[in-house]
Specification:
The structure holds two protein chains of two kinds. Chain A is mainly alpha-helical. Chain A has one domain. Chain A contains eleven helices and no strands. In chain A, helix 4 packs antiparallel against helix 10, helix 4 runs parallel beside helix 11 and helix 8 packs across helix 9. The N terminus of chain A is likely disordered. By secondary structure, chain B is α+β, with helices and mostly antiparallel strands. Chain B is built from nine helices and twelve strands. In chain B, the strands form two sheets. In chain B, strands 3, 4, 7, 8, 9, 11 and 12 form a seven-stranded mixed beta sheet that branches. Chain B has a five-stranded mixed beta sheet with strand order 2-1-10-5-6. Chain B is globular, with a radius of gyration of 19 Å. The chains are: A mainly alpha, B alpha+beta. Chains A and B meet through helix 3, helix 4, helix 6 and helix 11 of A and helix 3 of B.
């Protein structure tokens, strides 16, 4: 995704105030803390479990989308937020994990047969689970040691799975609702634009002369 | 009983737009309760007196707050909080219900007259949504059969078709750029289902006239069927000889059938119908309970479907 070009691009990128990465984590977890607090204190409306479950899932998708905006922001608007991408990706993973735990424990009450039946029979659950499984190796290798061990190219190749995860997450959202309400369609459209941008750029790179790169 | 409704609500009475939007954002931020309880319950709730009914369940009733704040009424948006926030714009007075089709006495009832001339009963029914949640709701209404008898259906009438109001200027959801359903909302019952004593037209809730988000001023309640059969804000009831079209069936025929009987052994193609969450029970730690055949009303209605394959006619 990012690749080597990022370092060179740094020079001309806009001067942005350097926020410590820990701040991204602290801010990123505010919605989760609030959701749990509001849920326990009965402030999530008539169906708090569903609100918590969907809220966590939605935040996972939002952070996943945030990681996908880093590259276009840099390439198109010269805004370099690359140093925050790992934090955003990990937060997305943590939200996905909390969303999954909420489904397993609070929604299904750890009823193994119901859960297995859901995974096998319900495409949206199958897709949701597959999406989470894809995110696991990405989260496990989101550290400098992994990049060194794997080598930059192999690492980048593995992390292209995030595109598949974004498609899975958007589909999972679309399939869980009745009819075609606006919200999941809007998220699916955002994912489509972010991935479509990459597709167009990579085809242009392939067809245009090398010197036009970077 | 006395139904007094202001014909004109002064603009000062209507919750300003900013308040709605603030409230929506607040809810989205998951902090809605404080503000939600501060909002008026309903702009025009009037008390309704009613007789008790042996058909009522003695299960714990879902709170009025939950029943009136967690609704599916897509004419006002697809969010569960949308109807409570936006249905205030629906003008329910004056209101007429037109009865036409294969009847000896076609009629157009003013809602006040219809209520005045009907014997109102409280019916505390389980309500099972196709989405997998349920409530226990103290409706006030009268048997649909009473109305059917008054208009004298012809022998040729086999089905009853219902239609909801279609008012784009009062219903922000119907002109959305994402058409969720083909408006107006339509529903239908077989004539024998319509005549079943459990089937009611509800005009009230918790002893008061219906809040708009629950389908004011008059809606259908068929407790053994999924909630979407309970068409809201009815303007027209037609007696027909062919099975009428129904909104959700048109939208996704493989997912929503004409019958839509609550049935734990026939799953929705995308989710299980074997269990349900009872709203207001257990909060975050709600335990699923098994869904009952015909929503627990098998004794009264199972005979309507003898010999039918309910897997095919879902």
């Amino acid at each position: 995704m990012a690749g080597r070009a990022s370092v060179q691009a740094d020079k001309k990128s806009l001067a942005l105030p350097q926020v410590p990465k820990i701040a991204i984590y602290l801010v990123g977890f505010i919605p989760a803390i609030w959701l749990f607090y509001a849920g326990i204190t009965d402030q999530l409306g008539a169906d708090p479990m569903r609100y918590l479950e969907q809220g966590l899932g939605l935040w996972a998708l939002r952070f996943l989308i945030a990681t996908l905006t880093i590259t276009p922001l840099r390439q198109l608007f010269n805004i370099n937020l690359l140093r925050y991408r790992r934090a955003l990706g990990l937060i997305a993973f943590y939200y996905a994990a909390l969303h999954l735990v909420t489904y397993l424990v609070l929604d299904q009450g750890l009823d193994v047969s119901a859960i297995v039946a859901d995974i096998v029979k319900r495409p949206y659950i199958t897709i949701g689970m597959a999406t989470f499984v894809i995110l696991v190796p990405l989260a496990l290798t989101s550290n400098n040691a992994s990049i060194r061990r794997m080598g930059g190219q192999a690492w980048a190749k593995l992390h292209r799975l995030v595109y598949l995860a974004a498609i899975g997450a958007a589909l999972h959202f679309l399939l869980v609702v009745k009819s075609w309400p606006p919200e999941p369609l809007v998220y699916a459209a955002i994912v489509a634009v972010l991935l479509g941008y990459r597709l167009i750029r990579s085809t242009m790179k392939k067809t245009s002369p090398r010197r036009r790169l970077a | 009983m006395l139904i007094r409704r202001p014909t004109d609500i002064p603009p000062s009475e209507i919750t300003p737009r900013e308040v709605y939007f603030n409230r929506r954002q607040w809810m989205a931020g998951a902090a809605g309760l404080a503000l939600a309880t501060a909002l008026p319950r309903s702009l025009e709730a009037a008390p309704l007196s009613s007789a008790k009914s042996p058909f009522s369940t003695d299960e714990k009733k879902t709170s009025r707050e939950d029943i009136t704040s967690y609704n599916n009424y897509y004419e006002f948006g697809t969010g569960k909080e949308d109807p409570a926030a936006k249905a205030g714009s629906l003008k329910t007075s004056p209101w007429t219900v037109k009865i036409d089709g294969m009847v000896g006495k076609p009629a157009e009832f003013a809602i006040e007259d219809l209520i005045k001339s009907s014997a109102l009963e409280e019916r505390i029914y389980r309500m099972r949504c196709v989405e997998g949640w349920s409530m226990v709701i103290p409706w006030v209404g009268f048997p649909l059969a009473d109305l059917v008898k008054r208009v004298e259906p012809l022998g040729s009438a086999k089905y009853v078709a219902f239609e909801t109001a279609y008012r784009p200027e009062e219903m922000p959801g119907v002109e959305s750029i994402f058409p969720v359903l083909d408006w107006p909302y339509v529903e239908g019952l077989r004539l024998d289902e319509a005549m079943n004593p459990l089937t009611i037209l509800a005009v009230g809730l918790y002893g008061e006239t219906l809040p708009n988000q629950n389908g004011a001023p008059i809606r259908l309640v068929v407790p053994w069927k999924y909630g979407f059969k309970g068409i809201k804000s009815i303007t027209r009831i037609s007696f027909v000889d062919k099975q009428p079209e129904t909104s959700w069936n048109k939208q996704a025929p493989s997912e929503y059938g004409f019958y839509a009987n609550v049935n734990p052994s026939v799953d929705h193609p995308r989710w299980s119908q074997a269990t349900e969450r009872r709203i207001g029970e257990g909060g975050l730690f709600v335990k699923r309970r098994p869904t009952l055949m015909f929503n627990g009303y098998a004794e009264q209605v199972a005979s309507l479907y003898t010999g039918m394959d309910l897997r095919k006619l879902y």
